[in-house]
Protein backbone atom coordinates (compact mmCIF):
# COMPACT_ATOMS: atom_id res chain seq x y z
CA UNK A 1 0.00 0.00 0.00
CA UNK A 2 2.91 2.35 0.71
CA UNK A 3 4.15 1.99 -2.88
CA UNK A 4 0.67 2.65 -4.32
CA UNK A 5 0.37 5.83 -2.27
CA UNK A 6 3.88 6.95 -3.27
CA UNK A 7 3.01 6.40 -6.94
CA UNK A 8 -0.19 8.42 -6.54
CA UNK A 9 1.77 11.26 -4.92
CA UNK A 10 4.02 11.26 -7.98
CA UNK A 11 1.29 10.83 -10.63
CA UNK A 12 -1.03 13.65 -9.57
CA UNK A 13 1.31 16.66 -9.28
CA UNK A 14 3.41 15.59 -12.27
CA UNK A 15 0.36 15.14 -14.51
CA UNK A 16 1.64 11.74 -15.72
CA UNK A 17 0.03 10.79 -19.06
CA UNK A 18 0.78 7.07 -19.21
CA UNK A 19 2.01 4.32 -16.91
CA UNK A 20 3.61 1.37 -18.71
CA UNK A 21 4.27 -1.47 -16.24
CA UNK A 22 6.20 -4.50 -17.48
CA UNK A 23 6.06 -6.97 -14.58
CA UNK A 24 3.21 -8.72 -12.82
CA UNK A 25 3.75 -6.94 -9.50
CA UNK A 26 3.89 -3.60 -11.27
CA UNK A 27 0.57 -4.33 -13.01
CA UNK A 28 -1.06 -4.28 -9.58
CA UNK A 29 0.74 -1.26 -8.21
CA UNK A 30 0.10 0.81 -11.32
CA UNK A 31 -3.49 -0.32 -11.66
CA UNK A 32 -4.41 0.78 -8.16
CA UNK A 33 -2.24 3.92 -8.19
CA UNK A 34 -3.87 5.43 -11.26
CA UNK A 35 -7.48 4.93 -10.09
CA UNK A 36 -9.17 8.33 -9.94
CA UNK A 37 -6.56 10.05 -12.12
CA UNK A 38 -6.49 10.91 -15.83
CA UNK A 39 -3.37 8.76 -16.25
CA UNK A 40 -3.70 6.00 -18.84
CA UNK A 41 -2.53 2.54 -17.92
CA UNK A 42 -0.95 0.47 -20.70
CA UNK A 43 0.31 -2.97 -19.73
CA UNK A 44 3.32 -4.46 -21.56
CA UNK A 45 3.62 -8.23 -21.88
CA UNK A 46 6.28 -10.29 -23.60
CA UNK A 47 5.20 -13.87 -22.89
CA UNK A 48 2.08 -15.99 -23.12
CA UNK A 49 0.57 -17.09 -19.85
CA UNK A 50 -2.45 -18.98 -18.65
CA UNK A 51 -4.96 -16.77 -16.87
CA UNK A 52 -7.31 -18.13 -14.25
CA UNK A 53 -10.91 -16.99 -14.17
CA UNK A 54 -10.64 -15.14 -10.86
CA UNK A 55 -11.52 -11.64 -9.71
CA UNK A 56 -7.80 -10.94 -9.39
CA UNK A 57 -7.07 -11.86 -13.02
CA UNK A 58 -10.15 -10.04 -14.30
CA UNK A 59 -9.00 -6.85 -12.56
CA UNK A 60 -5.39 -7.18 -13.64
CA UNK A 61 -6.00 -7.97 -17.32
CA UNK A 62 -9.55 -6.78 -17.98
CA UNK A 63 -10.43 -3.79 -15.80
CA UNK A 64 -7.18 -1.95 -15.06
CA UNK A 65 -5.51 -1.62 -18.48
CA UNK A 66 -6.57 0.98 -21.02
CA UNK A 67 -4.39 -0.96 -23.44
CA UNK A 68 -2.02 -3.90 -23.62
CA UNK A 69 1.16 -3.89 -25.70
CA UNK A 70 2.63 -7.29 -26.60
CA UNK A 71 5.68 -8.28 -28.63
CA UNK A 72 4.20 -11.10 -30.72
CA UNK A 73 0.95 -12.08 -32.41
CA UNK A 74 0.97 -15.33 -30.39
CA UNK A 75 0.88 -13.35 -27.13
CA UNK A 76 -2.01 -11.26 -28.45
CA UNK A 77 -3.96 -14.36 -29.45
CA UNK A 78 -3.35 -16.07 -26.12
CA UNK A 79 -4.77 -13.05 -24.27
CA UNK A 80 -7.65 -12.46 -26.67
CA UNK A 81 -9.13 -15.88 -25.97
CA UNK A 82 -10.18 -14.77 -22.48
CA UNK A 83 -13.59 -13.07 -22.57
CA UNK A 84 -12.69 -10.51 -19.88
CA UNK A 85 -9.63 -9.23 -21.78
CA UNK A 86 -10.62 -6.49 -24.22
CA UNK A 87 -9.02 -7.82 -27.41
CA UNK A 88 -9.58 -4.54 -29.27
CA UNK A 89 -7.18 -2.86 -26.81
CA UNK A 90 -4.26 -5.22 -27.53
CA UNK A 91 -1.54 -3.98 -29.89
CA UNK A 92 1.49 -5.87 -31.19
CA UNK A 93 4.79 -4.01 -31.30
CA UNK A 94 7.54 -6.38 -32.32
CA UNK A 95 10.92 -6.35 -30.61
CA UNK A 96 13.29 -5.38 -33.37
CA UNK A 97 16.81 -6.21 -34.36
CA UNK A 98 18.56 -4.51 -37.25
CA UNK A 99 19.39 -7.36 -39.62
CA UNK A 100 21.59 -5.23 -41.89
CA UNK A 101 25.29 -5.51 -41.00
CA UNK A 102 26.96 -2.25 -40.18
CA UNK A 103 30.56 -1.16 -40.62
CA UNK A 104 30.05 1.66 -38.13
CA UNK A 105 31.90 1.25 -34.83
CA UNK A 106 29.80 0.89 -31.71
CA UNK A 107 29.75 4.08 -29.64
CA UNK A 108 31.75 4.03 -26.43
CA UNK A 109 29.71 4.00 -23.25
Structure write-up:
It is a single chain. This protein has 109 residues and is α/β, with parallel strands linked by helices. The chain is 37% helix and 14% strand. It contains four helices and four strands; from the N terminus they run αβαβαβαβ. The chain has helices at 2-14, 24-33, 55-63, 73-80; strands at 18-19, 40-45, 67-70, 90-92. The protein has a four-stranded parallel β-sheet, covered by helices on one side. Helix 2 (24-33) links the parallel strand 1 and strand 2. Helix 1 (2-14) crosses helix 2. The longest helix has 13 residues, at 2-14. The N and C termini lie far apart (38 Å). The relative contact order is 0.14. The mean pLDDT is 90.
Q: Summary?
A:
The chain has 109 residues and is of the alpha/beta class. It contains four helices and four strands. The chain starts with a helix and ends in a 17-residue tail after the last strand.
Sum up the structure in keywords:
alpha/beta; 109 residues; flat; 4-stranded parallel sheet; single chain; 4 strands; 37% helix
Q: What's the total number of strands?
A: 4
* Beta-strand residue percentage: 5-15%
Low-confidence stretches: none
Structural class: alpha/beta
Helix content: 25-40%
Mean pLDDT: 90
Biggest β-sheet: strands ordered side by side in the sheet: 1-2-3-4
Rg, Cα atoms, Å = 17 Å
Measured distance between first and last alpha carbons: 38 Å
Output the helix-strand order.
HEHEHEHE
Number of helices: 4
Question: What general form does the structure show?
Answer: flat
> How can the largest sheet be summarized?
4 strands, parallel
